[in-house]
Amino acid sequence: MSGQPFAAIRRGNANPEITKKFAKRVKADTFPYMPKMKGFNGHYLVVDANDTIIAVIHLTDKEATQTSTETLMWWIKENLRPLLASLMEATDGTVVESA
User: Quick one: pLDDT at residue 94?
Assistant: First the structure.
């Protein structure tokens, strides 16, 4: 499926009282960096009613997705671990439909 965009997805649970702090930290520390990443197309940070944090990064190809995962999962582990109730899980895949 060459030429199709990819998505890198990270998912974890935040400590309920600091979900906003987590989002603020991501916005301040990673949002300025992400548009400079090779293959970057967009980023979404979602927090559901159960304080599950889901980050979706839209990228142009598999290589950019792998680089994103290696770089950002390290950063999350080093900088955001105290704000998380569980470790972030990472997955990625081909975007087969979008609108």
Answer: 94
Q: How far apart are CA 72 and CA 66, in angstroms?
A: 10
Number of compact structural domains in the chain? 1
Rounded distance between C-alpha atoms, residue 23 and residue 29, angstroms = 10
Query: Is 1 inside a domain boundary?
Result: no
Q: Is 90 part of any domain?
A: yes
> What's this model's pTM, rounded to 2 decimal places?
0.85
Positive or negative, the Cα torsion across 3, 94, 68, 18? positive
Residue 65 lies in a domain: yes
Residues 27-38: pLDDT tens digits? 898 888 889 989
